[in-house]
Amino acid sequence: FVDNFDASESKPRSLSILLPLRYPRKSAPARGKLDTFAIIKHPLTTESAMKKIEDHNTLVFMVDVRANKYQIKNAVKKLYNIDVQKINTLITPLLEKKAYIRLTSDYDALDCANKIGII
């Protein structure tokens, strides 16, 4: 009489100890997240951007495509010490992201642009 009994099922599992890795498990380390300097690429100095600065208290920056409005707001606050009222973003036909950054009434966009070096 043959029974379909597997002897390995009845034995207790042996203790497994985590040993330190002898080699990296990935060939390249993971890239870091977007940092403040990677989010904001450069300010825009076109005529329409200058008009926004003068008329609407708004600065215009080219930003990383992966950055969201919250990250852009924090990056501007950290880099330029400016409070932001709101941010509008768009993706250009060249697949770059443009951010229109409306400043609070406490700040003048013209003064901030001079300090940054846009004008």
UniProtKB/TrEMBL annotation:
<dbReference type="InterPro" id="IPR013025">
    <property type="entry name" value="Ribosomal_uL23-like"/>
</dbReference>
<dbReference type="GO" id="GO:0019843">
    <property type="term" value="F:rRNA binding"/>
</dbReference>
<comment type="similarity">
    <text>Belongs to the universal ribosomal protein uL23 family.</text>
</comment>
<keyword id="KW-0694">RNA-binding</keyword>
<keyword id="KW-0687">Ribonucleoprotein</keyword>
<keyword id="KW-0699">rRNA-binding</keyword>
<dbReference type="Pfam" id="PF00276">
    <property type="entry name" value="Ribosomal_L23"/>
</dbReference>
<dbReference type="InterPro" id="IPR012678">
    <property type="entry name" value="Ribosomal_uL23/eL15/eS24_sf"/>
</dbReference>
<dbReference type="GO" id="GO:0005840">
    <property type="term" value="C:ribosome"/>
</dbReference>
<protein>
    <recommendedName>
        <fullName>Ribosomal protein L23/L25 N-terminal domain-containing protein</fullName>
    </recommendedName>
</protein>
<dbReference type="InterPro" id="IPR012677">
    <property type="entry name" value="Nucleotide-bd_a/b_plait_sf"/>
</dbReference>
<dbReference type="GO" id="GO:0003735">
    <property type="term" value="F:structural constituent of ribosome"/>
</dbReference>
<keyword id="KW-0689">Ribosomal protein</keyword>
<dbReference type="GO" id="GO:0006412">
    <property type="term" value="P:translation"/>
</dbReference>
<dbReference type="GO" id="GO:1990904">
    <property type="term" value="C:ribonucleoprotein complex"/>
</dbReference>
